[in-house]
């Protein structure tokens, strides 16, 4: 049984939006970026304490995944979370969905998204993370499902993901 769906993608791929849609379809979703901001105040403070903060966050997420209930959904760029994602995949209860989005579409989304909901709203910072994702994650991380974020709505993406998860043994 799949215990966790990982929405993997660069900034502005639609991970949080699709996570919310999956919650509407009966999966468990929690926006961990808000937890980070509540706990650490700013992205800069989180990064400054990353050696302490990241293991703590991963422990909290693992505890939440292991709670009884429907399949959990988390999001990641796969950068700082690479080891955590590896551990989830090794457990065999993980379904990775890669969300692909073009530079142009990501830029449009960044320009229009709600401020303060993500670790950074900075365009240059998000572009830097996108390039790191493209170099370090995209060529190496296996995905069970790939969704074209430029041509698939969040509602349709969530329906495809939910159907794929429910069809797994």
Write a structural description.
The protein is an alpha/beta fold and 169 residues long. The chain has one domain (4-166): Rossmann fold, CATH 3.40.50. 52% of the residues lie in helices and 14% in strands. The protein is built from eight helices and five strands; from the N terminus they run E-H-E-H-H-H-E-H-E-H-H-E-H. It has helices spanning 15-24, 32-40, 43-48, 50-66, 82-90, 103-112, 123-136, 154-166; strands spanning 4-8, 28-29, 72-76, 94-100, 145-148. The longest helix has 17 residues, at 50-66. It is globular, with a radius of gyration of 15 Å. The termini are close together. 33% of the residues are buried. The model has no long low-confidence stretch (mean pLDDT 89).
Outline the secondary-structure elements.
Blueprint: E1 4-8, H1 15-24, E2 28-29, H2 32-40, H3 43-48, H4 50-66, E3 72-76, H5 82-90, E4 94-100, H6 103-112, H7 123-136, E5 145-148, H8 154-166
Parallel strand pairs: 1-3, 1-4, 2-3, 4-5
Helix pairs in contact: 1-8
Largest sheet, in brief, is:
5 strands, parallel
Which spans of ≥5 residues are poorly predicted at pLDDT below 50?
none
Question: How much of the residues is beta strand, in percent?
Answer: 5-15%
What is the CATH architecture descriptor?
Answer: 3-Layer(aba) Sandwich
């Amino acid at each position: 049984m799949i215990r966790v769906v990982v929405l993997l993608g660069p900034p502005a791929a639609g991970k949080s939006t699709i996570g919310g849609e999956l919650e509407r379809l009966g999966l468990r979703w929690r926006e961990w970026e808000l937890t980070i901001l509540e706990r650490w105040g700013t992205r800069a403070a989180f990064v400054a304490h990353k050696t302490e903060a990241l293991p703590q966050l991963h422990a909290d997420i693992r505890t939440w995944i292991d709670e009884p209930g429907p399949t959990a959904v988390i999001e990641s760029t796969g950068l700082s979370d690479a080891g955590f994602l590896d551990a989830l995949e090794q457990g065999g209860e993980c379904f990775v969905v890669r969300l692909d989005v073009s530079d142009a579409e990501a830029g449009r989304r960044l320009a229009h998204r709600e401020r303060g909901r993500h670790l950074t709203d900075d365009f240059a910072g998000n572009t830097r993370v996108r390039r790191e994702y493209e170099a370090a994650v995209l060529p190496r991380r296996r995905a069970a499902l790939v969704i074209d974020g430029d041509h698939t709505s969040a509602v349709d993406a969530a329906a495809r993901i939910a159907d794929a998860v429910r069809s797994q043994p």
